[in-house]
Specification:
This is Pyoverdine biosynthesis protein. It comes from Streptomyces albus (strain ATCC 21838 / DSM 41398 / FERM P-419 / JCM 4703 / NBRC 107858). The structure is a single chain. This protein is α/β, with parallel strands linked by helices and 337 residues long. Strand 7 and strand 8 form a beta hairpin. The chain starts with a helix and ends in a 23-residue tail after the last strand. Helix 5 crosses helix 8 and helix 6 crosses helix 7. Helices cover 42% and strands 15% of the residues. Strands 1-6-5-2-3-4 form a six-stranded mixed sheet, sandwiched between helices. A four-stranded mixed sheet has the order 8-7-10-9.
Length: 337
């Protein structure tokens, strides 16, 4: 009979095969995709307790906020084939855990678009529509292992205007701008996130109707990046309170031994920082990958519609377009201010 310890470790090893490690060596004690003891320790006791109790292992994953507002990246405001592929991957991962631990696993997608909508230039109406369609997608998954949680589900703020919910989150869980700036300067992991967010925020405003200069957009992106980090961390604290017995996942690369670990949203590890909500799905020879909409169109890929709206692209030639990479330099450079 397999022991509780062996089962817990095998569950974590299964999930960590798809982890997103920080660029470079991650300071991990073992090579390749095999997690070392430092990788496992922050999460091992949480999984042990679930296994010992004969309960599903619960994971929480903040993400799936909304589509990027830049039409050069995405097909519209609703989740499409890019999100569907990610959901199918996560549902399948839970099925693999069920083979190890019959009670299985559950992943709670903590949709965070409502949390920082005004910081990313996305109307609340678009976030409402995105979450509704995401929920519909979840009901069609065969494993039924994924669920959705958002700021709209907070009992203490039910019925309140979205602006008030965000103000409440800041007041209860937020950090001061000075604290955030100090952390960006002192912590390499936080700096990496700040640079990535600055880049995304800058690119999302590179639309034809914007009249500001690139340097002005960059300065504004730096300012808003601090706000997104602060609001995201506040949301993470709230999620931890609401799901105290859950293993914490992240869509962002994490170092070995972090209290949460980064997870990819597909079995392929080539998409780097790119996520379904900043990209489109492109099928080449039966295999899907993510890229920006503008790249798919430049390649001459054919747009496919499903249920009367754009879904994904099918490439008409085999050469792939340039993809995002975790090692690709951030352009323009984002320096802490």
């Amino acid at each position: 009979m397999t022991s509780t310890e062996e089962t817990a470790r095998e569950i974590l090893r299964t999930v960590m095969r798809y982890r997103r490690g920080a660029p470079g060596a991650w300071r991990c004690d073992t090579p390749g995709d095999t997690p070392c003891e430092r990788c496992l320790l922050p999460h091992l006791e949480t999984v042990r307790q679930r296994v010992r109790a004969g309960e599903p292992v619960v994971f929480v994953l903040p993400g799936f906020p909304c589509k990027s507002p830049n039409p050069a990246k995405v097909l519209g405001v609703l989740p499409d084939r890019a999100e569907q592929l990610a959901l199918e991957f996560l549902d399948g991962l839970c099925a693999r855990i069920r083979e190890i631990h019959p009670p299985g696993a559950r992943i709670v997608l903590c949709s965070d678009g409502r949390v920082f909508s005004e910081l990313i230039d996305v109307p609340d109406a678009h976030i409402t529509a995105y979450q509704a369609e995401l929920g519909r997608m979840l009901t069609g998954l065969p494993g039924g292992a994924l669920s959705l949680f958002s700021a709209d589900d907070l009992e203490e703020m039910r019925g309140e205007p979205h602006e008030r919910v965000r103000a409440w989150l800041d007041a209860r869980y937020g950090e001061s701008p000075e604290e955030l700036r100090a952390q960006v300067r002192a912590d390499a992991e936080v700096l990496r996130l700040y640079r990535a967010l600055t880049r995304f925020l800058f690119e999302d405003r590179l639309t034809p109707e914007r009249t500001e200069s690139r340097s002005a957009l960059q300065r504004e992106a730096r300012r808003r990046a601090y706000g997104v980090i602060g609001r995201s961390r506040a949301w993470g604290t709230l999620v931890s309170e609401h799901f105290p017995g859950a293993v914490r996942l992240s869509i962002h690369p994490q170092d070995c031994g972090s209290p949460k670990f980064g997870i990819r949203l597909s079995a392929r590890g080539e998409d780097g920082w790119l996520t379904p909500w900043h990209a489109v799905a492109v099928e080449r020879d039966g295999v899907f990958a993510l890229c920006r909409r503008s790249e798919a169109e430049a390649e001459g890929a054919r747009l496919v519609h499903r249920d009367g709206r754009p879904s994904h692209f099918v490439a008409t030639r085999t050469a792939p377009p340039a993809r995002e990479s975790a090692d690709r330099p951030l352009a323009p450079a984002a320096r802490p201010t």
